Amino acid sequence: MYSEKVMDHFNNPRNVGEIENASGIGTVGNAKCGDIMRMYLEIDDAGVIQDVKFKTFGCGAAVATSSMATELVKGKTVEEALKVTNKAVMEALDGLPPVKVHCSLLAEEAIHAALWDYAEKNHLVIDGLQKPVNDIAEKEEDAGEDY
Ligand code: FES
Asked: Which residues lie with the beta carbon below 6 Å from any ligand 1 atom?
């Protein structure tokens, strides 16, 4: 049911880990399945993503999509990274079963959340970037109220 590429990225995920003092960190979660994804971006002064790492506490498709998403945004400008949609990630993986489409959305949102964090830290406005709805960074900060 999964493509070879999905299995490859699930078994050998690329860019797993953390970046210390990252330019932007995004944490998103899916309330239904409970899966969580965190994306770290290292962005240089020219706005180019030099490095990207992720951690995913979630299903196999979430691991595979976040792995592929990191490969797609690495070396790109912030504006180009914004155009890496969940559809693009799915295409790069040769598709996902319909019930797993939401997992790829998590990857897109994690990138957007990390870009949002980067923009906020640097007082930038990135055209077309909106605060991701499933950004759970703030909820984590006042944990205890919502959980
Ligand atoms: Fe939730 Fe895949 S089942 S991200």
From this structure: 30, 33, 35, 58-59, 61-62, 100, 103, 106
